[in-house]
Design a protein that fits this description.
Length: 120
Amino acid sequence: MAAEWTLTIATDESVYPVTIQSTASVARLSELVAFHTGVAVAQQTLVFNGQPLTSAQQRLDAAGVRDGDLVQLVVLRAPPPRVASAQPPAATRLLPDGSAADPVAFQARPAGRRECQCCA
């Protein structure tokens, strides 16, 4: 029969007591941490004794975690949003034969000249 443990989850700002079965997986702990902290599983790294708990399927007792232990939650920054494939402006587009669709767009601008009034 699995024992019920209380672990302390610590972030840079807060601590959260979490009750979990000793035989639960790291993935289950991550789900509970997400519930208590609001930090999505994909943005979590759980660290125990200075080592990240990287195997989601590993049981907590097999990872060395015991009742009353402290697990640190490191919140990963969300990746920057993906930008749709950047297409060159139509003015700098090349035609199938390799020539410029708008040759003037490829000409160098005079030094000191700004594109808009806000940058002048």
